[in-house]
Every structure is written in C-alpha cells, then in structure tokens.
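If your schedule permits, I should be very grateful for your opinion on a structural question. I would ask you to consider whether the tokens describe a fold that such a sequence might reasonably adopt. Thank you for your consideration; the sequence and its tokens are set out here.
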Amino acid sequence: MGAADTAFLAGLDPQLALELMVAGRPAWQVLAGAAREGALTGDLLAYEAPYGVGYFVAAWA
C-alpha cells in the first residue's frame, strides 16, 4: 500500500488469501483496477501489529 503498487494488488491470489484468512482482497483488487491508470505515489503513514494483527494507514496521491 505504501508503494501504490496496483499491479501487485491486482494480482493477489484468492486461494492464498483464503488460506491466510486475509480479509479485504476483493476490495483491494477493485481499488487497484480503479487506480491503475493514475501515476500514484504511496505513503505509509502508520503500521502497528498489536497482538499479531496488522493495521496500517496509507495515502495515495
């Protein structure tokens, strides 16, 4: 997210996401499709992983 890598997000593997219990894959792929034409830069504003659960805040401009 911090790199605004739309190709990576578009290529997320649905089966792997299911196995890893990663939520939100479809939403990230929709975002990647909507943003693929733009020349975006990303900025990872915050990342924390309390109790082993990762949370992040990123901005694309």
User: Anything to note?
Assistant: Residues 6-60 form one domain. The first helix runs from residue 6 to 10. The helical segments are 6-10, 14-19, 25-35. The beta strands are 42-48, 55-60.
